[in-house]
Amino acid sequence: MVGRVLERLLPNSGLKGDVEYHVIDDNELNAFVIPGNKIFVFSGIIPICNNEDGLASILGHEIAHNVAHHAQENASLPYLMTLVLGLVTFFVDNSAQLTQLVLSYALELPNSRAQEV
Predict the structure, then answer these.
(1) Partners of residue 76 on adjacent β-strands
(2) Rounded distance between C-alpha atoms, residue 62 and residue 49, angstroms
(3) Is 53 left (phi over 0), alpha (psi -120 to 50) or beta?
(4) From 7, 28, 62, 108, active-site residue
(5) Fewer Cβ close by (within 10 Å): the C or N end of the chain?
(6) SS3 39
(7) pTM over cut 0.70
(8) Is 62 known to be catalytic?
(9) What is the pLDDT of residues 29-77, one digit of tens each?
């Protein structure tokens, strides 16, 4: 089923080059695409899709994240903020809880929502 859906999606997906896909035998409800055009689908999500169109909507969404380079955006944290928070952790907050809170609210949460649009 995954192969048939990808045959329909890939010609118009924006992915360049060879695509590799894997179905992971696990009940997790997830699918994702990583840079290098590697597509992973957990078998647990397939029954929830109901049919190929449902799976196509999920895979299309995940492929769009890859085409939009969201993984690369998330990987490039602002270096100055990381340096400042490292110094704060070293001198003020040895437990790093403040640092984790600031990083989460300043960097992760805004991007996760913005990238879903």
Answers:
(1) none
(2) 14
(3) alpha
(4) 62
(5) C
(6) strand
(7) no
(8) yes
(9) 999 888 888 899 999 999 999 999 999 999 998 888 777 764 455 555 5
